[in-house]
Design goal:
heterodimer, A: alpha+beta, four-stranded antiparallel β-sheet, 11 helices, 12 strands, B: mainly alpha, 2 strands
């Protein structure tokens, strides 16, 4: 039979355990806004009760139980990565879009329109020196506006390069924090269950997820291994593998610690978004050393077409004074991706402009040049589009990419909030209890999705009935 | 009582879809069912509007096209949210040891295919 003192001791111990549980609760309250912190509960363990054997029973404090579920956190982190990607895309494409003047009152489109008007005015008075000088001035405006646009886009590219470098630095710094956690984990077995250390670890993982996509695997020794989606490690046990950003012929590349190109493994997160804009969106406009880019394609088509017409003509209808026409534009030859930045008006004066076409028509060349403004003046070098149409498409694409990125960002913010709700609902709940509800949720979602499909189809049908205005 | 005009129905449907979108919470089962009812109401309105427009060869104004475009925009946003929630629950089902449901050609799960058999899932 347990002694009276043993019973007192059991009661005292129970009070102590309650006090410890209150401390855990207080700690939860104190850390309610600490990044990465998860609610802790104190496990209570019943002590043996054996009256005959003198065991007084009672309760003892067990270990701390973390309410965090690694899998649930992983779901949120993957959505956070997507939000990081869309946010980076929205911000960087915004600066690209801003480089284009879409009002038509300035920039390339206004300058091009002005040049076409100058050509048209010249066709009415082909010998007039003022009209000729206006053509030179108009060409100068076009060249400068294309140079300005090219420079603006180049600056956007430099800014993105800088952002990529900064993001890589942040990723390596966070990987360093996780590596340090692993070191502490191996040095001290309690680290794996210490709420403070866990909060720091998950805060680092959350931050990392907004920067890049990765998978985190907890090893049996408590350490965390961080792998990029293609399997390249960032952290394994006590080793950290730094990544680096380098410029390449095709854009920016990410290299692993062995110098292997792992750019394709960075699909989302801020880094994925920046790489996409730099290597795809911007590269498609300004080109790379292996591709010309649409802006250079446009600038070259403009220069080659105008030069081709003028060089085939003559400066005068009078055979005694007529000279062969000269090129109006120049650009650096042999560097396809630098046409826009190097485009300039050649050093000719107004007397060297050739209004007479090869058939001897006094204003034939002027008319041909003015006709470039027409919707029928399609150019094979622009894929069958006109100069104005092609440039408009470049500007429209830039706007469209930004619009999509912004819409994706807004939508992803909503999606992340939903997944956080679902995580919070399931977190701290016995997942076995949750199992009963999963099927109900799946059915509910499916029925909502079906109605959405019907609604979308009906809306499409109704839209097809409406005339375009 | 006067029957609602097609344009009024389109406007109403657009408001209902907006209401459903703003009220959507994937963690709330009752709320999800309520959203489905709202969307079904909106679908009925659009169906009525389409029927009336087709029968009377109505020339719907630009405003109706804009309202429909807004409605479609919100429908796409909501579809993405529902898809994200469905993906979460599908993964959770796998996590809890349920077999992945079979999906038909329309991408819809057949509930009876969800096996209650458990399997061991090791924490990553």
């Amino acid at each position: 039979m347990p002694s009276l003192s043993a019973s007192y001791a059991a009661a005292a111990n129970a009070l102590s355990v309650v006090e410890e549980a209150l401390e855990v609760t207080q700690n939860n309250v104190d850390n309610s806004t600490t990044p990465g912190y998860a609610r802790q509960t104190l496990e209570l363990e019943a002590q043996p009760l054996d009256i005959a054997g003198g065991e007084a029973g009672g309760v003892a404090a067990g270990g701390l139980q973390d309410s965090r579920n690694v899998w649930l956190e992983d779901q949120v982190q993957s959505q956070t990565s997507l939000l990081g990607q869309y946010t980076a895309q929205a911000q960087t494409t915004s600066s690209i879009q801003a480089a284009f003047d879409v009002t038509g009152t300035g920039g390339v489109s206004a300058a091009l329109s002005g040049l076409f008007q100058d050509f048209s005015a010249w066709s009415e008075t082909p010998s007039d020196s003022t009209a000729r000088q206006n053509v030179l001035n108009g060409a100068q405006n076009v060249a400068q506006s294309i140079n300005t646009l090219s420079n603006s886009l180049s600056q956007s590219g430099s800014q993105i390069d800088s952002n990529i470098d900064n993001t890589v630095t942040q990723i390596n710094a966070l990987a360093g924090q996780i590596q340090q956690y692993n070191v502490e984990c191996l040095d001290n077995a309690g680290t794996g269950t210490d709420p403070g250390a866990q909060a720091q670890l998950y805060s680092a993982l959350d931050s990392l997820s907004s920067l890049t996509n990765f998978s985190a695997v907890r090893q049996s020794d408590g350490t965390i291994t961080i792998l990029l989606s293609g399997g390249s490690p960032l952290v394994a046990e006590t080793n950290q593998y730094n990544i680096q950003a380098v410029p390449t012929a095709a854009g920016d590349a990410i290299l692993d610690s062995n110098g292997n190109d792992i750019t394709s493994q960075v699909a989302s997160g801020q880094l994925g978004g920046l790489l996409d804009v730099r290597n795809n969106t911007l590269a498609s406009i300004v080109g790379t050393s292996t591709s010309q880019g649409t802006l250079n394609q446009f600038a070259q088509a403009l220069a080659d077409t105008v030069n081709g017409i003028l060089e085939n003509g003559k400066t005068s209808s009078d055979p005694s004074t007529a000279a062969a026409g000269s090129a109006l534009f120049t650009y650096t030859p042999g560097v396809p991706n630098e046409v826009a930045s190097s485009l300039a008006v050649s050093g000719i004066d107004e007397s060297q402009l050739a209004p007479v076409d090869q058939n001897g028509n006094a204003n034939g060349n002027c008319n041909q040049l003015a006709a470039l403004a027409n919707s029928t003046a399609t150019l094979p070098s622009l894929g069958g589009m006109t100069l104005t149409g092609f440039y408009g498409q470049i500007a429209a694409n830039a706007g469209s990419v930004n619009q999509n990125a912004t819409a994706n960002q807004t939508s992803q913010q909503e999606t992340l909030a939903q997944v956080q709700n679902l995580r919070d609902q399931a977190s701290g709940v016995d997942l076995d209890q949750e199992a009963a509800q999963v099927l109900q949720f799946q059915r509910a979602y499916q029925s909502v999705a079906e109605v959405l499909t019907v609604l979308n189809t009906l809306a499409d049908s109704l839209l097809t009935m409406m005339p375009e205005y | 009582m006067t029957a609602a005009t097609p344009i009024a129905r389109i406007r109403r449907a657009r408001e209902i879809v907006r209401q459903a979108l703003e009220g959507w919470n994937g963690a709330d089962l009752e709320g999800a069912n309520h959203c489905r009812e709202l969307l079904a109401e909106a679908a009925a309105d659009i169906r009525e509007a389409a029927g009336a427009a087709a029968a009377d060869r109505l020339h719907l104004p630009l405003e109706a096209r804009r309202a429909l475009a807004d409605l479609k925009h919100d429908t796409v946003r909501m579809t993405r949210l529902v898809d994200a929630c469905a993906a979460f629950q599908r993964n959770l089902a796998l996590r809890l040891g349920h077999a992945d449901p079979n999906y038909n050609a329309s991408g819809q799960a057949s509930p009876e295919a969800v096996s209650p058999a458990r399997r061991v899932v090791v924490d990553a």
